Amino acid sequence: MPAVERPLIYANLRQPGYTVDLDCYLKHGGYDALKKAVALKPEEVCKEVELSGLRGRGGAGFPTGMKWKFLDRKSGKPIYLVVNADESEPGTYKDRQIIYKDPHQMLEGIAITAWAIQAKQAFIYIRGEFIHGAKILERAIAEAKAKGFLGNNILGSGYSCEVVIHRGGGCYVCGEETGLIESLEGKRGYPRIKPPYFPAVLGLYNCPTIVNNAETMAQVKHVLAFGGAEFAKIGIPGDSGTHIWCVSGLVKRPGLYEIEAGKATFGELLNDLCGGPLDGRKFKAIIPGGSSTKILKVGERFKGKLANGTEFDWAMEDIPLDSNSIAACGTGLGTGGTIVLDDSVEMIQALSNLNAFYAHETCGQCTPCREGSLWLSRISKRITTGGGLETDVPLLLDIANQVAGRTICAHGEAVAWPVQSAVPKFKDEYLESIRKRQQGEAVSTLKLI
Amino acid sequence: MKELSNSPASTRALKPETLGRADGIIAQYPQKRSATMPLLHLIQEDRGHITQEDMKWVAEKVEVTPMQVLEVVTFYPMFRQNPIGRRHVRVCRTLSCALRGSYSLMESLEKSLNCPRGETSPDGDFTLEFVECIADCGCGPVVHVDHAMHENVTPASADAFAAKLKATLQDPSYGQNPPVPGTPEWNG
User: Fold this and answer.
1) Contact: B76, A168; criterion CB under 8 Å
2) Which domains does chain A possess?
3) How far is B63 from A415, CA to CA, in rounded Å?
4) Do B96 and A248 touch (CB under 8 A)?
5) Do A175 and A88 meet the contact criterion of CB atoms below 8 Å apart?
6) I want to staple A191 with a disulfide (CB 3.0 to 4.6 A). Which of A48, A129, A228, A409 is the partner?
7) Domains (ranges, CATH) in chain B?
8) 3-class SS at A156?
9) pLDDT range class, residue B7, cuts 50, 70, 90
10) Is some CB atom of chain B closer than 8 A to the CB atom of A383?
């Protein structure tokens, strides 16, 4: 059976004539889930989210209900909700749709979450380049406040929550939750070390803080609309709800595909929904969940055992689209940003492109990441300009191995993973690129760096 | 902070309405320092870049040292300390857009806008830059021009795109109309 989409988050915004106005949202059942939520006690709302099995949509896939449980409620300090709408992982453009086309859906999730965690102040950290997106959200907040969905005395419950939009400055590392918090405090976005700076205990202004992804907020609205137990039936056990696949790169129909977790495979996504490779081309590799997830090569076999004991032996095309299956293949679902590479791509250029990104985006705080990312970028670039040595290939791996696990935040892993995964899989091709360029032979005309 | 006191005399003053919005922005935050970035965005949208005088002003407003504001200005790629051209053209170069031809697009734009990447054209009309991922990867290559997001700007359409950008220089209504859904102005 061909793969089908199940739009949940995108159900309304894809309809012709659907607008960002509050009236339009209300006609589509908007803020009904908030009404349900405020009729429950905050701890009952938390319970629903826990029951739903919802996992965060920011890349790490941490269970949302469990994250909320870590909140230090006894400190007596104010509790903050921070929504991460920085959407900075290359290959990812799912939150943009929500912000630009259905802002109230996210705001409703924010109001529900704020009630559940008892936050009286929420911030939406939106990436600086979403200039009009920030204005759309500001207008939506004003509309929602005027109708009592946000602000003072929400729906007559006596509960109040203000929401403030905060624009970033074009910095990738501010998508990391503690870097984001520093940025929100008006500083450079230097990530903080954990322990002690777990946001749920020592977050914004050293107060207990929940940082959730923008799409996660939209999912929370649906958790309340369905009820936790019903929501958990969407998808598969251990990964509930839908995943929005942001497909980009060399495929016939790049775009956004919302699929029930685990109910299709990469092959179905890329061949059925995206129309397969461009004419005359063949898929060569995919980066499954945003640029920092490990690359999967077409033709390799993925074998192992799932957590439930099931043995598997898959080609890339057979991998089911749920976080556990993808993790079992040595990579991650991440943010669902699938970048597709075909046989026209010279792999060292693709790697060099990403290395340049991470070198540009390192905050400079930790030496292994600051120096390592730059070295990786320079070495891979020199291969693409004909100055590569055969020893550069193991050198890339050696440097990456010295970055991962040695930094304050996961940017170190983001620097290392593309190299650590690609070098063993494409080593022969890299050596071939070095040789061809030394001997002046023709290489791919598609320039990536 | 001696060096923060000399800004070029030619730099025009901020509009009174820009200055007037500052206190309202600061009041949104539990701690004043959080308003640093919003105030810098406000200044940059008014004048196009941020001067040392501006940083001193922000520092006084949010009660930090000018150096603490300078740290923020230099850390975030979006903040600028120098004037830019009349149109700011930012081409995404990260992998998804690169796979769709953003390097070839950049080479065409450099020629047709008479502007090397990373620089401003001699006539001051364009500043052309490569930027990292701007989160619109399914429609690559994407080009962010001032406040508008242009999608699917393929290398084949580069010359037509450059001509369109040049035409905006003669358009008095440029950037004045409220954005309509589905347009580059809306998606910007």
Assistant:
1) yes
2) 22-233 (3.40.50.11540), 241-342 (3.10.20.600), 347-438 (1.20.1440.230)
3) 36
4) yes
5) yes
6) A409
7) 14-75 (1.10.10.1590), 87-187 (3.40.30.10)
8) helix
9) very low
10) no
